[in-house]
Amino acid sequence: AGEGSGPGPSDGAGPPAPERVLFPPTFSVSEIKNKQRRHFMFLRWKQQQRKEKLALKKKRRKEREALGDKAPPKAIPKTIENQRVYDETTVDPNDEEVAFDEATDEFAPYFNRQTVPKILITTSDRPRGRTVRFCEQLATVIPNSHVFYRRGLALKRIIPQCIARDFTDLIVINEDRKIPNGLVLSHLPDGPTAHFRMSSVRLRKEIKRKGKEPTEHVPEVILNNFTTRLGHSIGRMFAALFPHDPQFIGRQVATFHNQRDYIFFRFHRYIFKSEKKVGIQELGPRFTLKLRSLQKGTFDSKFGEYEWIHKRREMDTSRRKFHL
């Protein structure tokens, strides 16, 4: 062999070069009967796919570097979010009708600073330890909130007592098999009431690299991607849980991030490391909410009038259609 040529199979110098995996055009891994062999071949196929993708990415990067300023703009990858089906109820911030609705809805006294939020947090009957700890940690996130245990009382009896004691909101944490799985948020005294399915609950001790316990400062509130009329109402419900004037000295942020109709809650503390860099620590707890229904007035499961109910078979016909 001449200089520069790689060692062949018959070349005695060095180990043979690894052969590239070549599959026939009509090959299907599922046709392999042996389970172990099928799994092994699938892993080899995936590895080959990754190598080809990486090589193509490297080639494109070199082409862009060679073209310099003449390189075409990067293509925006298609995602479910940017391919979203248009919703006619999407809110325009400059819409006069929306501004009038905001000025006259149930949350207007809060946004006009006429009322101060006072929250009652309770549970389903006979809560277990995990649900109780979650309620206690939630009370440290939401200022001016108080945890009380149900003791067998029906919600219809609790709500008049809350109104008499000047509570502005009622939060009920439901559980199933010792795990929190539902949240009812009722704005007092006239509603509305939202019912959420809760999942992915993580208490503080379960969060890695968490910060120190939160302080009593009023946190900032961030609401992301609540774009439709329904989403706008839900966002205003969450905002009305926190006092209107955050204390920036505490550097604490409560975030409600809506993505594909799942609302992710996170609680962080931030610190400015320089003019351009910011460090954040998660304080916890964290959880995910999915809206099940929005009801006019306070909680009434029998005779309540519903503004919106999630019907899976009728509404979830397209993966690119979202309601919030």
UniProtKB/TrEMBL annotation:
It is found in: Nucleus, Nucleolus. One of its GO terms (cellular component) is nucleolus. It comes from the Eukaryota. The keyword rRNA processing applies. One of its GO terms (biological process) is maturation of LSU-rRNA. Residues 1-23, 48-75 are annotated as: Disordered. This is Ribosome production factor 1. It comes from Nesospiza acunhae. The gene is Rpf1.
